[in-house]
Amino acid sequence: MGQSLRWLLWYAAVVGSTVNTQQTEDTHLPEITDQRFISQCADAHNKYRSNVMPTASNMFYMTWDEALAITARAWARHCQFSHNPRLKTPREVHPTFNSVGENIWRGSTFTVEAAMKLWHDEVADYNHDSNNCRTNRQCGHYKQVVWATSYKVGCAVHACPDGVNNRRALFVCNYGDAGNYVGFHPFKTGQSCSECGGGTCQNKLCRDAERDKLKRYDWAPDWDPEAGTSDAYYLAVLITRPLSVLLMFIGVYGLQILYPNLFAYE
Amino acid sequence: MEYDVAFVRSIRGMLKVGELVTVFVALVCFATTSGSSYIAASCMELLMTAALLTLYILKLNKRFTFFFWPLIDVFNSIFAAAFMFIISTIAISHPTAKGILGGGIVGLLATGLWCGDAVLLFRKITFNQARTASPPEK
């Protein structure tokens, strides 16, 4: 008896631990409301944007956008290392931007700096004069990071299954307005801030109080894997099912009193 | 410790193993994306069915007769089928990701198995007569 009980407990522990490890892994990664994560993402982008060579005359300062981060989180939850197919569909990816840009990074040890560096390092494969990438090389991530008119960014990181036991981080950033328009340079060359069109200049980047304002949204894309599975729903499942087990035992015990001659054929 | 391996080869045993396999596949599907409530729900069903199967294999149902296990089993199958049906229909009607849709379809399959399990076992249970209806004893 003691042995079987131990076996049952062991079994419960093994099945239970698969859920637990997933939760602990998730807590290592920052949420999109984490202020440190938010400033890391925005600062890293602005650092690379203000240091472009040659200098840019119309480079906007980039600020965080809640809705873009929610969109990035929703796509990261799909755990696919490819672009969101809805990027150009109005009202599917953002309440006000009709189309947004996207960069994706995947790796086992996530830091904002590591992901941003990988994207920015594509600068080596980009020729600013011809506006082309070197053959068979990517530079789209770099171009999006330094796209002058992209002034809002929202990023999210999510732990995705990779094989049986490993989990890899998927880091997604969405940008408004979208960059990487074919045939256009990411930014205009010239003296820093000479073509801002109003506003102030800070660190070679164009600032504008209205443009840089943090907006609040009530935004949830309907293609989010966790849409509709809010915490309340999760709690309801966790409470009703064990409660039904309790009721079941009480009910059967009651039936046994009511029908003492209960019998089941083998 | 005695093991009742023959149970696994019986129809009801195979149904239980089938339920375990399908709900596990559904769990894996849900886990590829992160619908935490889908994962929690299928995980609980997996645990419950596994516990019952263990009970039968270890013949614990013969040892602890305090509860009438066949009825517990029937009720559990009904609850599991109802829960899985609700969760799978939600998953299929809002397929926010491929994994959720796949998990929903496999979940419906599991629902069918639980229904079959419940019906099959319930038909083997006789209530005999109720105490209220029995003639006064002398």
Automatic annotation (TrEMBL), chain A:
Keywords: Membrane, Signal, Transmembrane, Transmembrane helix. Residues 1-16 form the signal peptide. It holds the Pfam family CAP. It comes from the Eukaryota. The keyword Transmembrane helix applies. The chain crosses the membrane at residues 232-255. Residues 36-183 form the SCP domain. Belongs to the CRISP family. This is SCP domain-containing protein. It comes from Conger conger (Conger eel).
From TrEMBL, chain B:
GO terms for cellular component: membrane. Its main location: membrane. Keywords: Membrane, Transmembrane, Transmembrane helix. It is a multi-pass membrane protein. It is found in: Membrane. PROSITE patterns: MARVEL (PS51225). Residues 7-126 form the MARVEL domain. This is MARVEL domain-containing protein. Pfam families: MARVEL. InterPro entries: Marvel (IPR008253), MARVEL-CKLF_proteins (IPR050578). It comes from the Eukaryota. The keyword NAD does not apply. The chain crosses the membrane at residues 17-33, 39-58, 70-93, 99-122. The keyword Protein biosynthesis does not apply.
